[in-house]
Amino acid sequence: MTRTHSTVPVLFASPEFASWTDPSSSLLAEWVNPLLKSIHHRELPSVVYTVVAVVDKISTLQSNRPRVPLGAAGLSLLLVDSSAIAVSASQPAHVRSSSPAEPAFFFSTPRTSDSAENEDDNQYAREVGLRLTNTIFVNGKDRTLLGLRWIYDAASKGYVLDNWKDLSICDIRYPASEARSSITVPLRPVTQRRSVVSSMGNILRQLSSKSSPIPASSELEKELPRYVSELGIPHQRVAVWALVEPLNALLSEKYGRNDLNQSILNGNRIHRVVSGGGGWGKKQGLLSLDPEVSFWDQFTSSQQNPVSLDQTFVTQSPHSVEPDDNLDISELLGQGLEEDIASLSHVAPVGDNIQFFVATEPEVVENNTELPEDRNNSPLSCSFAVGASVGTELTIPSSSSQDTSSDDMVVIPNHFGGLSETAISYSTKSSGLSPNGRVCRTKLSVPGSRVEIFCYE
């Protein structure tokens, strides 16, 4: 079968507009048909595809506008060639996989220069992963990420929905000839930068000090109450993150150690501290870090390999197996605890540097993205962010300088993006460095975090 490429509309919708993505709703065909006819006005293909996802908010453009909210209710549209999209259909849940992988959306740009001598930002491919919103009370789905196939109907002179599939992965590799990126993580240090002396898996045991190793939580337990008292922050609302600098981190000394955002771009990782402190005996002073660094990891064990949109509608799922009624309890619970701990990758191995931070107000963090000058074309700006606070309604002021068609709507041209209330992931990779090309892999769950990518054709 000869594969034909066509333009695929990819739509982000906030929960307020979830009905626009519902295959059973007439709204879906009402916006898809005019859009497809506008895209393919010269020759209408017989088969076309669309991808839709429901996100917590639509991410707004922040560059040089630090007071604009991170996100708002609305829609965000990206037009991309079908050859740049890879998807994986969701697998049916069964006994052996009672906790299916949470669907995720990925956007990446390719490595645009193969010169090893040039070490600027344009050397590395960038990839951002976005967690989707929970839509169980909106449309009955835990998460909404859909691939839809449309067939042209000559009788009605329009496209008719032929089939649709729930997706677990949508991976867009945008073919930019040049891309620039920036990252903002609003954190403030509360402890000194120290070396890891003892750790196992995602558990920190001891850190370095001038005299002898200290329990991992001891300095944090001393400095954090002082910090929250000075700012008058309620103790129960304080969250702590650890910046982990690998022993062999690339370019770790090229930039100042206090440049947090640049240090993440250089390969350092952010992990949220999920538990620890206090205790006695062997558990005294331990800290537990969130071990997740990439949303791709959850799909690795299930061996989901994304394919093209047309392939996913003709390929049967290789994992559609019947539940086994004779499972042993050990199979349900997995390996022994000791084996589980031993199999964990070390989040902060001995010798790595680590420093603890707390979140600051996102509004005080300025975005210093510098865009190339003398461009004949406007870049596509893609922005992915973490909500400033769960439950806080964010809106775009009607006084925005962007074009508006009414007092209640703002149109941001050449912009695409989404906001998650839980987390986004960020990675850079280079084909000439490590075996898997990864230079930086980290999950960003700090409220107010954002990644902006500017793509030039």
UniProtKB/TrEMBL annotation:
Q: What is this protein called?
A: Uncharacterized protein
The species this protein belongs to is Talaromyces proteolyticus
**Source superkingdom:** Eukaryota
